[in-house]
Write a structure and sequence with these properties.
Blueprint lengths: L1 H30 E8 L6 H20 L7 E8 L4 H14 L4 E3 L4 H14 L3 E2 L16 E2 L5 H15 L5 E6 L2 H15 L7 E5 L7 H8 L5 E5 L2 H14 L5 E4 L5 H7 L9 E3 L10 H13 L7 H18 L7 H9 L23 E6 L2 E5 L4
Parallel strand pairs: 1-2, 1-3, 3-4, 4-5, 6-7, 6-8, 8-9
Antiparallel strand pairs: 10-11, 11-12
């Protein structure tokens, strides 16, 4: 009898718990717009993931504090994938099937995103502002994908064009991650050089999520390049630059693309930005002429007072601002179609002085070059 009572009590408790969880989820779902992301929060690329979360949540927190969007609050759910594609696969299934997110937002990485692309296409869920310039996300047949940043091909074209025209550099080498991300950069570099009747004089690779750069340095150093394009993560890239400077390359220009993470790279190099040309998809947050940069610095210091500003968190802040604008301007029910339509028809002045227009499947289409001097990133005028 006692056993039956406890069995009955247990089953009743379970039913109540299930009912309450479903009920609470429905209530929460009515008042919350759920976004979800997978990105590195541990491992050698953790700073990038951390900065992306901080930038986005800075703006989302600001919006929520003012009452949200038509009474709905934005909740960004995030999971750590350690920059490993198999983990990203697990995370996206959790976000879609368990968390029931409305949109995927700011996934970080080329190999990680490529792993889950079939699911993104099959589910037709909005996939917005991935932190990668990969070409496979810029297929016009994928209506549910809206990129925020410009492509790696555009970044590398900007780097090589600047070095070729202003520095008369013709001897290029490349240091890159041996995976889909590195291959994207490698192919884009080959194509940019080909336009100028140039070829790579050497190349070196390293394995993702390692610091094994010795072989790459050995492959490059004997060819005496004038500039080295860097397609990697910040820790191995910083290690490569340190070792290259020590052995043989004091006068070579190192040119990392945006994913390398300029702020984390400079920290790893103890503030030594000598002969480094940085490429970014957004202007400097130190630019006093940009109202949106001032807004970012003010809100970041309020919501994350212990965090330093960075290009990655500034870009994520801007992407969040664009997402909020698209959500606010929806007339009628919140649907995938209405959200994506508003993103693709975003007002040109949403980011103030920063040009924004949906074309080539992306909202930003400008490359920004900078150097690091006296503790600040200084913009470099692009050449055409």
């Amino acid at each position: 009898m006692v056993k039956r009572f406890f069995l009955f009590f247990f089953l009743l408790t379970m039913l109540i718990a299930i009912f309450m969880s479903v009920y609470l989820y429905k209530i929460d779902n009515k008042n919350t717009i759920l976004l979800g992301t997978s990105l590195p929060l541990t491992g050698i690329n953790k700073e990038l993931g951390k900065e992306v979360i901080e930038g986005a949540n800075t703006y989302f927190s600001h919006v929520n504090a003012k009452g949200g969007i038509n009474g709905k609050y934005i909740n960004l759910i995030f999971y750590d994938d350690k920059y490993e594609p198999q983990n990203t696969l697990i995370n996206i299934n959790t976000l879609i099937n368990k968390d029931k997110v409305f949109s995927l937002f700011s996934f970080v990485g080329t190999p990680t995103t490529k792993k889950v692309l079939p699911i993104i296409i099959d589910k037709n869920i909005p996939f917005v502002a991935a932190y990668t310039g990969a070409s496979f996300l810029r297929d016009t047949n994928f209506d549910n994908i809206v990129n925020f940043r410009n492509s790696y091909a555009q970044e590398i074209e900007g780097i090589i064009n600047f070095l070729y025209k202003t520095k008369q550099i013709t001897k290029f080498a490349i240091f890159y991650q041996n995976d889909d991300y590195g291959e994207e950069g490698y192919i884009s570099t080959i194509e940019a050089l080909k336009k100028r009747d140039l070829t790579l004089i050497s190349e070196g690779t390293y394995k993702r999520n390692t610091l094994s750069i010795r072989h790459a340095l050995h492959e490059i150093k004997s060819t005496k390049p004038e500039a080295i394009i860097i397609i990697g993560a910040y820790k191995p890239s910083a290690r490569f630059i340190k070792k290259a400077r020590e052995c043989c390359f004091r006068d070579v220009i190192f040119a990392p693309i945006s994913f390398v993470n300029a702020n984390a790279l400079i920290n790893e190099l103890n503030g030594d930005g000598e002969n480094i040309l940085f490429s970014q998809t957004v202007p400097s947050y130190d630019d006093d002429s940009l109202k949106v940069a001032k807004e970012y610095l003010h809100l970041l210091s309020f919501y994350y007072p212990k965090s330093k500003p960075s290009y990655a968190s500034f870009e994520s802040f801007l992407a969040a601002k664009v997402v909020v604008n698209a959500l606010k301007n929806i007339k009628g029910p919140l649907t995938y179609k209405s959200f994506l339509s508003n993103l693709k028809n975003i007002p040109a002045d949403v980011l103030g002085e920063i040009p924004i227009k949906y074309q080539h499947t992306q909202l930003l289409n400008t490359t920004y070059l900078s150097s690091y001097n006296n503790g600040k990133f200084e913009s470099i005028k692009m050449v055409k």
